[in-house]
Amino acid sequence: MNNERMHICPNCGTTIEESRYVMRPDGTFRCEHCYFNDTYLAGIVHQIDTAYLVTLEAFVNAIDAREHEVGNHSLRVTEFSMVIGRSCDVRGRDLVDLYCGALLHDIGKIGVPDAVLHKTGPLSPEEQMVMRGHPEIGFHIIGHIGYFAKAAEIIHSHHEHFDGSGYPRGLKGEAIPHGARVFAVADALDALTVKRPYREAVSFEGAIEEIVKASGKVYDPAVLQAALKASDELKDYVGRIVFSGMEQETDRSPGLGV
Prior knowledge:
This protein is mostly helical. The protein has helices at about 30-40, 50-65, 75-85, 90-105, 115, 125-130, 135-140, 150-155, 180-195, 205-215, 220-230, 230-240; strands at about 5-10, 15, 20-25, 30.
């Protein structure tokens, strides 16, 4: 039986468990989604045509239903992408495209068989090939929708490496869409700072150190420099969200007050 206290998000009315809230200075709580929208999006969602916003939300719900990621992975990496994107001076429609591409980056995993997607042990070489097909699948799902054309390129390229060693096309340097290069740093930050069944989380500082080691190889050095400029904001966000069943170390966060 779950003994956690429950709170109601005053923005959307969603019931949220005590370990999944963000508390504001006025003592009210926000669910992760509303905290994210209220604090960082600054009207981005309102720039998206209503019909496409409904489509976007439907796709995100499909991803959430298909893949059981820790504490809303898509939301976290989208937030990190927004912070890094702004530090790179991404503005206007380009920021909207980054938002959509980051949220939908794993849409292609809908086409990955359960036996591969949810396998707890290491993937075989054949299974790795199947998993590596998800950027192409995602591109083909989204790419025919004109409004999401640039977002589809981020989806297609989010596993490319700056030195050309990534997949699926082996793109190199500026041939990789800028949004995908921003997303790559955001994705790595999330992957390292969240506890997974197969490894412990590392501190924000430890994650940045690991990412810097791959500058010019996996990550665009210019994007990484922008992320470093925004490190205080990124660290603050990493520390604020507490995930059910996964207590973060107290030295990773100054507290939950917004």
